[in-house]
Amino acid sequence: MKPNTLNDRVRRKLLTALALTSLVAIPALAQGYPSKPLKVVVPQPPGGGFDFVGRLLADRLGKQLAQPVVVENRPGSGTLIGTDAVAKASPDGYTLLVGSISNLAINPGLYSNLPYDSLRDFEPVGLAVAYSYTLMARKDLPFSSLKDLVAHAKVNSGKLTYASAGNGSGQHVLAAALWHLAGVELVHVPYRGAQAAYQDLLGGRVDVFFDLSPTARVQVDAGTVKALAVSGSARLAAHPEVPTLNETGVAALELESWFGLFMPAKTPTDVATRLRADLAKVIASPDVIDIFRKAGGRPLALSAVDTRALVKRDVDRWTKLTRELSIKVD
After folding, report:
1. pTM of the model
2. Which one of 3.30.300.30, 3.30.420.10, 3.40.190.10, 3.40.50.1100 gives the CATH number of domain 132-248?
3. What would the pLDDT profile of 4-15 be if each residue is shown by its tens digit?
């Protein structure tokens, strides 16, 4: 199937959903909304996958709403601080969250006292894109495959290190699950965000790092790291020579991280309807689809009902897995 044909199908799905939304009359309150700038909270530092998606959606949504949409990076405790701030924000439609599988679906299984409830405290505005992760090794690591790395780790327990963007981040949990299933022990080195992890990976001070494929691609293409595997169900068009985790035979594991915007629960229905309709237009725009695809992403076209079902499915799945693997960060 040609890429343009696939893009057209995605746009048609989104525009159909948008047309159905427009059949609902928007009350007077939404007609006066928004009357001031909006804020999109990114619960990670600048430079990573959260930030990439958040800034793109904020820029386009601001144009659609005819109001500035300001990005606020609120990192800390993995993704907890920024996510919890939005859970407790006024449900007036002016504070939104960049939500992903990491902060909304994986965290519930990691923390025994999570300060927010992903299913109770948030409502989806819309999901925009899904990305796989790429497992990278420092350039001079003497292994050319994940199988070779695991074989070395089996007889050198605790000698290799893996970076993450923080305790409880998607990079942490995916890697921890992989090493557990492969039966090896690597030392976890958490950082405050992906960029700090890259500095030590490129400097040879840490051995491997899982990161979202669009941001990992820059380093892979530059030849500054070695790509060992990708976490999705299929290989990436940008790096067709890199196998999936399942293909390596090391472990039966796959993970694709979705990203989108979420609002606090109890946001007025008319405001939520306006936000969903305008974000749907943004996500369906050809330039946004093109940007996501070029970065290795899979544009999404889901209704609010389907998004809620997806989040619940992943909360249930990853809570069960992290508890089975005894992965905890508190």
Report:
1. 0.77
2. 3.40.190.10
3. 554 566 556 655
